[in-house]
Amino acid sequence: GQQLNQSPQSMFIQEGEDVSMNCTSSSIFNTWLWYKQDPGEGPVLLIALYKAGELTSNGRLTAQFGITRKDSFLNISASIPSDVGIYFCAGGRSGGSNYKLTFGKGTLLTVNP
Amino acid sequence: DAGVTQSPTHLIKTRGQQVTLRCSPKSGHDTVSWYQQALGQGPQFIFQYYEEEERQRGNFPDRFSGHQFPNYSSELNVNALLLGDSALYLCASSVQGADYGYTFGSGTRLTVV
Hints:
Strand content of chain A: over 45%
Low-confidence stretches of chain A: none
Number of helices of chain B: 0
Number of helices of chain A: 0
Shape of chain B: globular
Radius of gyration of chain A: 14 Å
Distance between the termini of chain A: 37 Å
Oligomer: heterodimer
Shape of chain A: globular
Mean pLDDT of chain A: 94
Largest sheet of chain A: 6 strands, mixed
Low-confidence stretches of chain B: none
Order of helices and strands of chain A: EEEEEEEEEEE
Radius of gyration of chain B: 13 Å
C-alpha cells in the first residue's frame, strides 16, 4: 500500500538539540497528523493540522501543513531523553467516504543524555 | 477512563490457521478502525467499522474480515494465515464526525510460523 515519504529514517542527537523531520507525498491531503510511538505501544497523536499553511505548536513541538498540501514538517526544540521513540506522519482526506490515514515509515529518534 | 483495549497482546499461529483479534473502543467512541503495522513500517489501513458495518476497506485480501458489535467493540478475523501476516495489529477508535481523532490501542503482536 501507499506510504508517505518520511525523512530522515533515523536521527541520533544530543540532549538539548533541536530536531526537524519532514514528510512528503505525491498526492494532496487535507489533513496532516504527527504521531509518536513508543516500544510496545500504539501511536499517540502529537499534533493535527487541518489547513494548508497552518503552523501549530504543542509545547516544544511545532508542525506545519505545507502550502502545496503535499508535505508537512515537525520540529522538536530542546530535546530531552523522553523524546526517544518513532515519529510518524499521516495524511488524511476527510469528507465523502474516505476515512483512512496513510502513514509514513517513521523517523526513529534517539537522544543521548 | 479506559482507553482502547486490545486482546490478546501476543499470539503465535501456524500457517493456514485462522485468528481472531478483539478490540474494545474508548468509552464514548462509536467507530473502530484496524491497521496492520509490519516491522519497521508505518501502519497500513485495513478497514473501518461504524454502525456495525464496514464502511471503508484498504488494500487487503478477503482473508481479512471484521465485525462490529452493538456495544461498538470489534473483531478482526484473518483466515488462511501466511507468514507475511506477521505484524502488529492496531485498533483505533474515534467518534463519528471527529476527523481522525483516533485513539490507538497498544496492539496485538501476531507471529505466524
